[in-house]
From TrEMBL, chain A:
InterPro entries: AAA+_ATPase, ABC_AA/LPS_Transport, ABC_transporter-like_ATP-bd, ABC_transporter-like_CS, BCA_ABC_TP_C, P-loop_NTPase. Keywords: Amino-acid transport, ATP-binding, Nucleotide-binding, Transport. The lineage of its organism: Archaea, Methanobacteriati, Methanobacteriota, Stenosarchaea group, Halobacteria. One of its GO terms (cellular component) is plasma membrane. The keyword Transport applies. PROSITE patterns: ABC_TRANSPORTER_1, ABC_TRANSPORTER_2. Probable component of a branched-chain amino-acid transport system. GO terms for molecular function: ATP binding; ATP hydrolysis activity. Residues 40-60 have a biased composition (Polar residues). This is Probable branched-chain amino acid transport ATP-binding protein LivG.
UniProtKB/TrEMBL annotation, chain B:
This is Branched-chain amino acid ABC transporter permease. Keywords: Amino-acid transport, Cell inner membrane, Cell membrane, Membrane, Transmembrane, Transmembrane helix, Transport. Belongs to the binding-protein-dependent transport system permease family. LivHM subfamily. Coiled coil: none annotated. It is found in: Cell membrane. GO terms for biological process: D-alanine transmembrane transport; L-alanine transport; L-isoleucine import across plasma membrane. CDD domains: TM_PBP1_LivH_like (cd06582). GO terms for molecular function: L-isoleucine transmembrane transporter activity; L-leucine transmembrane transporter activity; L-phenylalanine transmembrane transporter activity; L-valine transmembrane transporter activity. It is a multi-pass membrane protein.
From TrEMBL, chain C:
The keyword Transport does not apply. Residues 443-474 are annotated as: Disordered. Signal peptide: none annotated. InterPro entries: ABC_transp_permease, LivM-like. Residues 458-474 have a biased composition (Polar residues). Keywords: Cell membrane, Membrane, Transmembrane, Transmembrane helix. It is found in: Cell membrane. It holds the Pfam family BPD_transp_2. One of its GO terms (molecular function) is branched-chain amino acid transmembrane transporter activity. This is Branched-chain amino acid ABC transporter permease. GO terms for cellular component: plasma membrane. It is a multi-pass membrane protein.
Amino acid sequence: MSESEETTGVDDASQSVDGGRTETRGETDGVDERDETGAEPTTTDAQSPSTLDTDATGSETGEYPLRVENLRKTFGGIVAVDDASFEVERGTLTGLIGPNGAGKSTTFNLITGMHTPDEGRVLFNGEDITGLPPHRVADKGLVRTFQIARELSEMTVLENMMLAPKHQRGEALWRSVTPGVRDDVVRQEEELLERAWEMLDFFEIDHLAEEYAGNLSGGQRKLLEMARALLTDPDMLLLDEPFAGVNPSLEHRLLEHVHELREQGYTFLLVEHDMDLIMQNCEHVIVMHQGKVLTEGTPSDIKQNEQVVEAYLGGNV
Amino acid sequence: MGIAETYSRSRQFVDRRPLTHSLAAAAGVGLVLYLLWVLVSQLVTGQLQIHELGELMWDGLMRGLVIGLAGVGLSMTYSILNFANFSHGDYISAGAFSGWATTYLIAGLGRADIGSLLLVGAGGSVFGGALGIGISTTPLAVVLGVVVAGIGAVALSLFVDRTVFKPLRGEDGITLLIASIGVAFALRYLMQFVFGSDVRGTTSQPPAYSFYVVDGWVRVNYHDMTLFVVAIGLMVGVHLLLQRSKLGKAMRAMSDNGDLARITGIPTEGVVRWTWIIGGALTGISGYIFVLWKGTLAFDDGWLLLLLIFAAVILGGIGSVYGAIAGGIVIGLTASMAVIWIPSAFARAAAFAVMILILLVRPQGIFAGRATA
Amino acid sequence: MSANNGGDAGPANSGRVNDVITRLREGDAGLILLVLGGIYLAYIISGVILGYQLRGQLNSIAALTFYIGVFALLALALNLHWGYTGLFNIGVVGFMAVGVYVMALVSKPVYTPGGAAQVGGLGLPLWVGVLAGMLAAALFGFIVALPALRLRADYLAIVTIAMSEIVRFSFLSSEFQQFTLFGNQVGFGGGSGLILDYTQPLEAFFRTFGLWDAYLGFVTAFGSFGPLNLNNPKPIVDSLIYGGVLLLFIGAYYWLLKRTGESPFGRVLKAIREDEDVANALGKNTNRFKIKSFMLGCALMGLAGILWLAVQGAVTPNFFRPRITFFVWIALIIGGAGSNTGSVLGGAIFAGVLYQGPLYLKNVLEAVLPQTNAPNGFGPAVAPIFQSLDPLPFVWYTLDSIRQLQLVIMGLVLIWLMHNRPEGLLGHRKEIAASIDLSRPTRQSSTAAADGGFVNGVSETNDSSANSGGQRDE
């Protein structure tokens, strides 16, 4: 309880930071100065990643935007998640690993509101988001991708992208149909379209823009999904096995994007069961086993932890 | 920390689902109590007599057994082929027509021309009453009619499966559902084309027993009893079949997970065929005994029953044999007994309302978790 | 979008001409004109065979236009539900019924003892009734939608069809036959139906603008116009004008639904159709979108019902049987769910070919073939085949039973479509859900999107490797 009171203040602060960010996002000025292209040799154009978010970088290091406390969920007598607690630090790439059936995906679903926990709570930016419906969770800046990429297959890549930005004026039916008022909608769509194209450029899938999403390869879908999630202006991204079924070269590219975005200030929680990948890329690793958090720490800590080794060898991976 | 915040926070702490559930439960209990109160006060004031109540219940049970028996077939195909078959009602009519053509033929051979008999007296050419059809008067004709009704519906379901549904295997449930609407249209109006649109009387008045219940007589006639015996017998038979045989196991496996069943080597097409055979037989026979019981036959009898059958199947939980039977009886009783509380025009509406309520409160049905058998 | 690209090459002027031609050839407008032209031509030709006088021809055209109108309107409304939002509504007819009955309740004249009508209405102007009917249909949609939208598609189907039957039972019941509302003796008439004894829609419309006398003058002039020379031209002119009104309504529906679809709102609907979880995970409150879409569609169904029945003189509950819902579905599936143009096309084809067509065919055949009496049942029709190899009675019976057989044909068409063309004629056309053209904004295209640039070159190689090696293996 004391924690929740503590974090209330932080909540307000981060909200205002967030709000400010969102406003500057629409206008492309100011952000263009920054050059992020060093990390990505192929995108030498100034415009590519420039409008991506950066303001949150480092300003609140030491803060933990996501805090999970004593989560518990049972399905018909089977305990999927059992008293799991952990935190994710801002601006980090945190990995969540564990053998199959460890409860990683369920934890994800509990955090993002797809399931309601039986016990425990989820705090995001100090705010209790336990049991909120998925769209409210996303609205607060905590956005997920899916284990099996869920592109909207009969929509084009661009339609997929244009769907993502939050609170579009034209999402109100009356604004979209009323003559005159619709001009407003059109104007906003033009702004959003530029951002959508920039994001496609950044992920280098711009040549697929008018393709139906269903025609994309598995890896391209993963790229699309991440690009789409970023267009919602998230604070933090939850990636559910983003590299599953992706070929090595594309995996490399995706990872580069993730690192680049992390440097810009995004926070990532990554579910993955590929140990090596996590160990090489994450600053912090949480290990789950049989619904519980087994241990957490830096990759080197984890590597030396006998329990983890046992869990993996004893488990079915 | 402001008041509003405290409020929203505490509200979030309470998981909302149990709250709505307990509210719904409270409302349900309240409704049941109210209905009981109305019933008791009607009994006390003599507005409704106990034997009348008994008659309504008996009527509802009869209706419910028909719905349940037809529902078993629908439930099986629903869970194994994963689509709501809107042509199921017309399988009932088709079974009834094939069975009754047989009954007419046997009962009326030599007394009317064969064409009229085979068309079940279309256009008023022959009357079932005049032929003296009934379980006590023409038992052989009725028994053979039951058998042919089952065979006819099986043949029809296999034919439709081969020509319509099999090419669509693997499509989503909605595609199959729409195709089944097409089948329903084609079948129903083909039957109207062949058998005409008149509602014909099919039986002569069967003998009846009367039981004295508290304040009056409840009549139970031979056809009531036939329906009861046939329906219960078939239900027990299907239960044993699905419980004891390999087929039942394979069906349960398929309704749980079709892909998995295929991988593990269950001959899925064979299971599908047996599903249609068993479901079709029950459906056709239910159509026959329904007509025997109510004494009339029309081309859209089955279609009019279809939504009630869906109600029963959903109520009982899709894929559950017991569920379909229990759901059928609940729906039958609801449709018959609703007149105690509401105008008779809304009796069917009440049955639908029960279904809608169940879908909202417990969409997996009352007997969910007990897959086929 | 393909039509937009048609005029790229060549000088501006010829480019524009090319553009128009491409649009006609590849676009849907040409197809619609072609189909409509074909249908009307077939009707006129059959009218000639039947020896229809001008009056008969005009009548048949008016009737054809009427049914094309109502089915196109209904298919458009249903397309919003199913094609756009993925809501499997098979209770269309219930929303029509609510619209019509509420309109009648509001607009029928106040009850006068000894009058022609058994029950009265509130006596308000017709347009008030129409608005009230649409509102009531939308509200009824809300009542159905609020709890039912979280159900699986097949459950939603069963709930909606059950609700539409409950509506029919309610209007059939004697309880609502007559009741008192705001001190007026009103009602729904029960099973015997309602006489729609308000001022007829066209008259009400023209009177509102003080044009009634002008209209009557036009009718007289039309009738006495040399080559036409009709006596009592008013019913024909009325129905022709009404057909035109329906076509205008199609335009209005189309306009409204196109704007709805081509907008951020429509984009969310499309996303819900594709995968509701994704829309949710992107922060869209999908339930709100579904309810709005459902209510709008229901209001449009209510209005279409009103337009269908307002000029029929009377309405009975048993008109609203589920089969009409299935008619609308067939129309939508023929045209292609997801496409507004397809909905109009499907409505026209359904009305012209499947709904009215068989009846005309029957008339034509009966006019061509020698006159006899059809046998009164299947038995007498088939018997001569066995007795004397005479198939004619069966042919007559078949023709005579065309009303049933056309429903058989509809069922077979539905099955055929599901097997061979489930997406309909225009189902997978690109109708991009955005208010603007989504191609790359021009001021950037010179730098980044130029073909063959370094950026694209690299990424394409990457992706071809992704294509070959990155096949999904889950």
